[in-house]
Amino acid sequence: MHNLDRYTTWPMFARDIGPDSGSALSTQNLYGVHPFYMCIESDGKAHGVFILNSNAQEVETGPGPHLLYRTIGGRIDMAFFPGPTPEEVINQYLQHIGFPFLPAYWALGYQLCRWGYGSLDAMKTVISRNQAAGIPLDVPYADIDYMNHYEDFTEGDNWSGFPAYTQQLHNQGLHLIVIFDPAVEVDYSSFQRGINALPFDGMWIDMNEPSNFDTGTYFSMEEQLANAKLSCPISGPDSSLDVPPYPTQAVYQRSGEYLFSKTLCMLGKTARRSRNFYDTKNLYGWSEARDTYQAIPQVTGKRSAVISRSTFPSSGRYGGHWLGDNTARWEDLQTSVIGVMEFNMFGIPYVGSDICGFNGVSNEELCLRWHQFGAFSPFSRDHNSEGMPDQDPAVWPSVANAARIALGFRYYYLPYLYSLHYNAARYGHTVIRPLFFEYPKDEETLEISQQFLWGSALMIAPALYQGQTTVHAYFPSDTWYSLQPETYGQKMFSGFNDVHAPLSSLTPVFVRSGFILPRQAANTTTTASRLNPFEVLITVKTNAASSGELYYDNGDDIIPNDNIEQHPRVHWQFSFTSSIVGGVFTGNCETCSTAVKPPTLDTIEILGYPSAPNFSGFKLDGSSVTLDMSKTSYDASTQRVMISSKNLISLMALKKKFTLSFSNN
Q1: Is 486 exposed, middle or buried (0-12, 13-18, 19+ CB in 10 A)?
Q2: Which GO terms describe its molecular function (predicted)?
Q3: Where are the domains of the chain?
């Protein structure tokens, strides 16, 4: 939400500048450029506007309301998206720029990183203590510490045995992501040597605005030749691009800087010397992500994940994004919620913040609350800076406990999260949504910036303030069920409710009526949890059917021709209807490949079911079913049904439909 009662100018020029959540209003440009906006009218209808331009640019907003767009080069291609719902606006925008990539399943697991591992042994110690604490963990990272003098594709003296350790991680069902900074030419021997030396699984591409720490200036060629560092002209005929007549607020708001400050000279050449860097700088991160995304399967033979700092429209086709070098403070935790929702609107749903904060010293309560929120970000990674104390969950017993609980819930519902990413990749939908995406005519939702949805069904209301014990959460007009252990299955009243947010329990999370969510029992790796039988959670909606879906594939197999329509998969669509007589649960396999072999569906939970089922009368496709009565029950006080039987329903390709029916007592 922008305040249109004041004049504000927002520069857009990819810069190595971290988020400044501590200021009352920070308008500085960050790592990427996304010239797209969405407007919600007073009647709840939405539209969007996209201006395709890769030069330095800015937007002024103010009274009227009005929006003024300026750019200092290139061309302007404008596209309008009529909606009329917010989700439809984003869907139309993504049809224009391209749908997001589908990350490998393991990339949805918890990830642990830091800059400052002094050696491979230090990394091993941190990973081992978190595994010993029972923290779900899928992806350890190696930051630039593993390199020799921070040079890409090299291995430092204290990192001898890194490839062997990576193989050990693989044997445990874990995966490795490593960092690379630009730029190394692909025909350098170090590139060819390095890319084959380490059995990595994913890539983290950083500093790709691109960043350069020590760019200088010169007035004359003689001065330039005498300078040992990269310098750019600020006078004479060669300076027209580096010192343009109007350099935008990207320069004006930072005293003493130029367009080339902390990056490369604007008169530089790109695209085989066919373009000026002045015109293409904002595309650098996008182009690196695209090439990295295309190269990794050629090296590993598998689907992967790419995380990029600098992004541009359509970057989501090739990778995800972390919200940058944030700070260990409560304000940064709070703005991280907004950042995750914003990047879903930009078509980059695989996004998250550095849990606990990157810069500065974190603390126990902040790190605990950040894990409770970060477990619900699609990209979930703890990361901090060189010289800062360790902040992995195992440092504090209370944080370890909170992380186990929050990540345990995440891993339990990963089949639902993965299905949402499939919908994003195949149909162009969001994964994380603001409340107003589902309730655009509810004016109250337009002001809610610290709650969010997984798809349409799960609502998360994290505690984001120091000393907070309750969350003043808003519940749009619908039936919502609590999934917190203390109030599990309890219906929530519409409007604002104060919900308990303990340090030692699950983040406040609620499920909406009318949906069917797939899940699997959690393990400490996705490699193990994918082997567990499936379950579904059904939430009953009065006088309406409940619906949901399950997407399942081999987890990291390459998508043929980058076309998900050709990808071997099992895609089940579920429906549940009920009446005073009984209930009917059906499944239809929209796409069923024999190359994919999902586990069976063994457990069904129903919330809001008003009658006790006759457990001896269940029928699957007309044949009687024997249930495991030690795991099957009905609780009249909470209207909760549990149904379980080993190998209850096959989800294999040979069985493309099923009907499970039962009567009430």
Answers
A1: exposed
A2: alpha-1,4-glucosidase activity; carbohydrate binding
A3: 105-210+284-416, 216-281, 533-664
Catalytic residue flag (residue 438): no
- pLDDT at site 222: 73
Is the peptide bond prior to 183 cis by the omega test (within 30 degrees of 0)?
yes
Q: Which tokens is 54 given?
A: 């890769």
Instruction: Pick the range with the lowest mean pLDDT from 195-204, 250-259, 489-498.
Output: 195-204
State the pTM of this model. 0.96
Q: Which of 206, 438, 602, 605 is catalytic?
A: 206
Long-range contacts of 465-472 (CB under 8 A, 24+ apart): 465/330, 465/334, 466/330, 466/365, 466/366, 467/365, 468/369, 468/501, 469/500, 469/501, 469/502, 470/498, 470/499, 470/500, 470/501, 471/498, 471/499, 471/501, 471/508, 472/496, 472/497, 472/498
Here the tokens at position 10 are: 């927002």
Please tell me the CATH code under which domain 105-210+284-416 is placed. 3.20.20.80
Tell me the two tokens of residue 293: 């995304």
Catalytic residue among 58, 88, 209, 438: 209
pLDDT beyond 80 at 271: yes
CATH class name, domain 533-664: mainly beta
- Kindly state the tokens that stand for 243: 């010192």
Whether 206 is catalytic = yes
Name the least confident of 32-46, 183-197, 272-286: 183-197
- Tell me how far apart the alpha carbons of residues 343 and 430 are, in angstroms, rounded to a whole number: 9
pLDDT at res. 44 = 95
Helices 162-171 and 120-132: crossing angle, nearest 10°? 20
Nearest to 19 by CA among 333, 252, 293: 333
* pLDDT confidence tier of residue 185, bands split at 50, 70 and 90: low
